[in-house]
Amino acid sequence: xxxxxxxxxxxxxSLPLAALAGPPQTVFVQxxxxxxxxxxxxxxxxxxxxxxxxxxxxFRGKHAGDNALGYLASCISQDGGATWEEVDEPxxxxxxxENDMSVSLLRLQxxxx
Length: 113
Fold this sequence. Notes:
Elements: H1 4-21, E1 39-46, E2 52-59, E3 70-77, E4 85-87
Antiparallel strand pairs: 1-2, 2-3, 3-4
């Protein structure tokens, strides 16, 4: 019974807080197109200046599989995610034969992403 008490307290606090957040909103949609069959495995980080950086895997060519050609690309929002500026070029130089994918981002103590 004592094990259920912390869980009950968690739900008692978190459920009302979740209701305050409002319904989920889509803040970013990334379309595919010719020579861009897939976009995936992205991560967001808030930068020191308050802008939001989104880095993701952008696939190119005709194939969309995990071993297809791809690179890490980025988008930046200066207004809290309302609009996004897309940079359609590799974020880092290609190293090796495979694509770059599945990025993780962490803002460091000094504020740099």
